[in-house]
Specification:
This protein has 2 domains: 162 residues, no CATH class; 130 residues, no CATH class. The chain contains 13 helices and 7 strands. The strands form 2 sheets. Strands 1-4-5-6-7 form a 5-stranded mixed β-sheet. A two-stranded antiparallel ribbon has the order 2-3. 26% of the residues are buried.
């Protein structure tokens, strides 16, 4: 007999990895992420993706790293590994990635060759605190006076050590996904979703939610007769505010209709605030209509409200 629970956990982990990977592939998200957690200011125009597959000169292939970025016109690299569970082999894996990256970049045999500067990051979305060592631990008992060898040390971002409030305040897609992953119970997740719905979502968060909807089989299975509506949302033609209904179906087998109606009202208010902000930022009408699915008549009404607020 197949263990459906175990299968669902594996499938859920694979989907989570895919969602986080897609967000990590967004240069805007990465530059903000590095600035937020490590205070290194880099710009989207200055970075590029780098091939994460390595074949070393000594003949064997090391597994592919999640994401690698290169700062243009430099030999500076950012390696990002996402982990949904604690991996105690991570120090060894990071060391392998660093050695392979150095090997792939060493095209000169000159004694003046300089190794690339590598900044490895591990993003942990584990439900437990990350307690794996940050570097390879060496034997210290009776070392006969030999000096310790310095191994690469990775930089850790552990969602269990960042508050949900801080992640939600950030207003980026990656931190929103981290906030959702941080919740350990259905009730906690519902509270976060309800807060996001009532507050409204910006472009970064809307992109994150689209990715989640597109890659979550649980949500797709909960759609039922809403499949066509779902397809519109993914294509960008539908009303993004409707994601609340899909999440509620995911979280509850039977949910309170009255609560759901209240949430819908909150979403509509939040959506109007987003559209007003778009208007204030001088976005073109066709772009606003494309991303929000608002009618031209409603858009005209909101533009008048924005103009009146300026006069007041």
């Amino acid at each position: 007999m197949t263990d459906n629970t175990a299968e669902n956990k594996v499938k859920g982990k694979q989907e989570q990895d895919k969602i986080l990977r897609k967000l990590l592939e967004d240069k805007r998200e990465i530059t903000h992420f590095v600035d937020k957690f490590f205070r290194y200011k880099i710009f989207v125009k200055d970075i590029e993706r780098y091939n994460g597959k390595f074949v070393t000169s000594f003949g064997f292939k090391v597994r592919e790293s999640d994401i690698i970025y290169k700062i243009k016109s430099t030999e500076i690299y950012i390696i990002i590994e996402h982990q949904s569970t604690v991996d105690y082999k991570m120090p060894k894996r990071i060391s392998e990635y660093c050695i392979c990256l150095i090997d792939s970049r060493q095209t000169s045999k000159s004694k003046f060759y300089k190794a690339p500067l590598i900044f490895p990051i591990v993003l942990s979305t584990s439900k437990t605190i990350w307690d794996a060592p940050l570097t390879i631990i060496q034997e210290e008992d009776n070392n006969y006076g030999f000096p310790a060898l310095k191994y690469p040390t990775y930089n850790l971002v552990d969602i269990q050590k960042v508050s949900t409030e801080e992640l939600l305040k950030d207003r980026m897609g990656l931190t929103l996904a981290m906030a959702l992953e941080k919740q350990k119970t259905k009730e906690e997740l519902e509270k976060v979703i309800e807060f996001v719905i009532k507050r409204g979502v910006n472009e970064n968060e809307a992109n994150c939610l689209k990715i989640i909807l597109e890659n979550s089989s649980k949500i797709r299975n909960a759609l039922g007769d809403k499949k066509e509506e779902y397809k519109k949302i993914i294509k960008g033609d539908g009303d993004m505010s409707n994601f609340e209904e899909l999440y509620i179906e995911l979280l509850e087998d039977k949910y309170n209709k009255g609560v759901n109606q209240g949430i819908s009202q909150g979403i509509n208010q939040g959506k109007e605030e987003i559209i007003k902000q778009m208007i204030k930022n001088n976005m073109e009408d066709k772009e606003i209509i494309k991303y929000t699915n608002i009618s031209r008549k409603e858009l005209k009404r909101l533009k008048l409200e924005v103009e009146k607020s300026k006069i007041a």
